[in-house]
Amino acid sequence: MLNIEHLTHTYGTGAKAHLALKDITFAVEPGELVSIVGPSGCGKTTLLRTMAGLMRPTGGDLTFLGNEITSVPEGLAMVFQDYRGSLFPWLSVESNVRFPLKRLGLSKADLDARVSESLVAVGLTGFEDRFPFQLSGGMQQRVAIARALAYRPKILLMDEPFASVDAQTREDLEDLVLSVKKKFNMTILFVTHDIDESVYLADRVVVLSKPPTFVVTTLDIPLSDNRDQIETKEDPEFIRLRGEVARLIRHPKSDDVTIPVADVA
Ligand SMILES: Nc1ncnc2c1ncn2[C@@H]1O[C@H](COP(=O)(O)OP(=O)(O)OP(=O)(O)O)[C@@H](O)[C@H]1O
Predict the structure, then answer these.
(1) 52-70, pLDDT tens digit by residue?
(2) What's the CATH code, domain 2-75+193-264?
(3) Which residue range or ranges hold the ABC transporter domain (predicted)?
């Protein structure tokens, strides 16, 4: 569905050039949840923005459903980290979810059905008439997820969506992502710097190095589909996998890509 091949990105030019992404290759298959995990500043947001067509990379190939990504592709929705900036504060919850659907030319009955189905999926029935300032951070992020779901994207990109909420809310929202993935058979690319989160949610984890950034490895996550915040995280396989990801971020194997010795320490 999404193919990224030898993507590179350099910010600036000349003496001020900064190689943010050195060599990124991976693919996302339909119905998968792939998480991308890496240290702060490794270029996760840069990568997601190029995939969303919000900026052009300086090198490499990016395709979505076989087409080169040159602008925001149809069939792609994104949920950002900063829920405060992503909802329209003057619109109610229902109108926020309805807003991006206007351009799809659906009948009123279809629009109503999509909005209400999405609000049910994120557990916000009864809050339709509230405004964002009347909701907690976690609830605002649920509205952002409902808005993305109502659009019925082929792929949902999520950029550290739960980084600004408390730990308990974060766990609830992680389980919400797993439930909507199942319910809508959604393909999701989830960016996080949280190792536990990357393993808990994913079918596969793409591990990024420190900058200049490359894909250290892609790990399959062979955990049961029915994940549980307590039982899964106590599972010895989960503990092994989170340890493996942590080790790979700290000590990437340098056989594939030459990186400065100082960066491997
Ligand atoms: N517009 C820009 N101009 C120049 N450098 C930039 C720009 N945007 C990002 N960078 C640099 O590129 C690198 C990657 O930034 P990016 O925000 O993509 O990383 P990140 O992994 O998402 O970071 P974090 O985990 O802290 O959110 C950083 O060194 C950052 O300073």
Answers:
(1) 999 999 999 999 999 999 9
(2) 3.40.50.300
(3) 2-235
Distance 211 CA to ligand 1 centre (A): 10
Indicate whether 262 pLDDT > 80: no
Ligand 1 midpoint to CA 191 (Å):
14
- Looking at ligand 1, which residue's alpha carbon is closest to its atom 7? 11
Residue in the block written with tokens 């999926």? 121
Contact 148, 156 (CB under 8 A): yes
Name the residue ranges covered by the structural domains of the chain. 2-75+193-264
- Give pLDDT tens digits for 236-258: 999 999 999 999 988 776 544 44
Question: Ligand 1 — pocket residues by CB below 6 A?
Answer: 11-12, 18, 20, 40-46, 193, 211
Q: What's the Cα-to-Cα distance from 45 to each of 40, 50, 158, 191, 222, rounded to whole Å?
A: 10, 9, 10, 8, 27
Q: Which of 7, 13, 18 to mutate for ligand 1's pocket (most ligand atoms within 8 Å of CB)?
A: 18
Considering the entire predicted model, what is its pTM? Answer: 0.88
CA of 51 to the centre of ligand 1 (A): 15
How far is residue 72's CA from residue 69's CA, in Å, rounded to a whole number? Answer: 7
Q: How many angstroms is it from 136 CA to the middle of ligand 1? A: 28
Share of the chain above pLDDT 70, in %: 95
